[in-house]
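Materials and Methods. Structural model of Malectin-like domain-containing protein. The 617-residue sequence of Malectin-like domain-containing protein from Ceratopteris richardii was retrieved and submitted for structure prediction as follows.
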Amino acid sequence: MAVMCFWQLAYVLTLAMAGFPCYLAAEGTPYNFTIRIDCGGSSNFTNEFNQTWIADQFYTGGIKVQLPDQQKFKFSQEKTLRSFPITGGKKNCYEVGVPNGVYYVRMFFVYDNYDNETHAPSFDVSIEGTVVFSWGSEAWTEDNIKFGAYSDVFTPIEDSVATICFYSIGTDSPLVGALELVQVDPNCYNKVLHENILLVNYGRFTGGSSSFGAGMSKETDITGRAWDTDLDFTQSAANRVVLTTDQGIKNANRAPNYFPMYLYQRAHTLSYEDTLEFLLPIDPKLDYMLWFHFAEIDPKISASRQRVFDIVVSGKIVFHNVDIYKEVGNYAVYDLQFTARNLTNATLSVKLVPHTGAPLISGLENYALLPKEVPTDPIDVKAMRAIKRSLLIPERMGWNGDPCAPQNWDAWEGVTCNHGESKEILILTHLEITGLKHLLSLNLSNNLIKGGIPEGLGKGLLRVVDLSFNQLSGPIPRSLSSSNLRTVLLNGNRLSGEVSEALYSIGVTGGYVNLSDNDALCGVPSLPACSLLWEGSHMSIGSKVAIAFGVIAGVALTLVAAYIIIKRKNSEDYKFGLPHKLASSGRGTRYNRQKSRPKYEGDSSPYVRNIFNRSGY
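The predicted structure was written out as C-alpha cells:
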C-alpha cells in the first residue's frame, strides 16, 4: 500500500469526524484518494479485485431501484441504480466531500426497462457545473439499454466537494448505477486540466484481444481507467494479429499518467503490410486530444527502419515516418500526442499507413477537450446553500448543485442569474421568495443584497425576517407588518420613508424590531417625524399635487420674466448675455441630490439607532 501523506491523513480524519466515510486506494500513486458508490445499493462490499464499494449515499433525492434481471450483470455495482423521479425536481445531485485536486470520474448507466415505460429516459449529466454526458435516444442503443455502459471524464475539483448532477429532459427520470472518483496526478495529460478544460472519454482502447482495467480484470490501471478492446473501432479485423509478451516494458507506470505496463505488453498489427484504420465517433463541435501508445514487442524487429509508418488523422499526416525501434528500442514505452481541431464529420478517421512492414499500435485514447462552463460566484453559492438549509426548501424545487450553472439548464426555482462584470463568473441578481407560503424563518443577512424589499414579504406563516446588513433601499412594505411576525431585523441598510405603526407595535408587544443604521426612516417613536411629503411609506397625493403646482407656477414665472426681457430688448436695443467665466463654467455644472440623515440633540453620531423591543429601547 502506498504511504499516506500527513495532509491525506488529516483530511481523512476531518471527513470522518464530519460523518463522511473515506476510502484510500491501495495503489501506487501519491494521489490515492478513491471513493466508489454503489448507487441504489444498501450495503458496503469488497469485490474480487479488492476494490471497496460503499452503500448508496451523498445524494440529494431520488429512489433506490433493484434491476429486474440481475443475473445478466457481471459486477455487483451494476445490479442496482438510483432513479430521480421528476416529482423530486428536475435537478438532483451527488455531493461528495473530497480533497481538492484532479479526478477520474466514472459512472455506470443502465435502464433495462425497470419501470416498464415505453422508452429509456433522456437526461443530462454535469460535473462541477459543466454538462459532460447527454443520454438520449442516440446514446441508448439496444445494448446500452439491456446491459449498460460506462462513461468517464477527467476533471479538476476545487471546492472540496465533487458535485455530479442529473437534469431531467421533459418529464423523464434520470438514473445512475455506479459512481467512482479516483484522485490522479494533477499534471497528467500535459497539464491540460489546469486550463479550465475537462477531458471526456470518446474512446480508449487496447490493441490486445480483450478489455482490461480497474474493476474489470486482474490486470488493473492504478488511475481507475478501463481499456476496451479495439474490435469495435477497427476496420482491419480480417487480417488482425495480436502480439503479446510477458517481458517488462521500460518506463511504464510512470508519473504523471501512470499508463499501465499491461497496455504495452499487447499490440495490434497486421498479417501483411497494409493500412491499419480506426473510426472514432465524435461530436465535431469539439476539439479532441489523441494519445497514441506504442511498444515494439515483436522480437523479429531488431533494428531501425524495419517498421516505419505515418499517422494520418482526418486525411492529414500528423506524424511522419514513425519508427518505434529507432526512438526507444525494443520493450520500451513510446507515446505520441496530437490535438485535432476544426473537425466537420461525426466520425474521426485515424490511419497508420505503412512505409516498411506492417504498422503496430498498443493503444489509443481519444478525449474531447470540453471547456469548463462559467461557474457561479462561490460567495453566492455559499449563501444560497445556507438559505436552502435555513428555509428547508422542498425537493421538488430542485435546489441542488450550482444555483446558476450549467447555463443551458434552468437556474434554481425563484433564482435569476446573469454574468458578472468579468463575464467569467455568474452572479445571482434576483431571488423570488414571496411565494413560499409555509416559510417560518428567513435569514438573508450580510449578503450585500441591493434593491427594494418586495411587497408581499412577511405574509403567510413567516415569524422571523432578518435582512440586516445588506444594501436594501426604498420604503418598508406594509406586508412586513404582519401580525404573525415576531422578529424583524432591517438594520444596516439604506431604507427610507415612514415606518408603520403596525411594524412598530411588534417591538412593543413582545417581539423584536431593529431599524438602526438606515438612510431616512421616520414616523414612530425614537425616529424623527415624517414631513408632510410622506404618507405611509410613499409620498402623499397632496405632496405630489403641491409639487406639480409648484412646477407649473415656476414655469409660468419663467415665461413672464422672459416676456419682460424680450420687451426691453425690443424697446431699448439691449443685448443680454452671461459673463464669460460664468457661462463657460456653467456649461459643466451638475447638481447631485445629497441624502441627509437627521441628527438629534444628544446623538453623537449622524445615525439614529432605532431598536424596538418589549422594553422600548
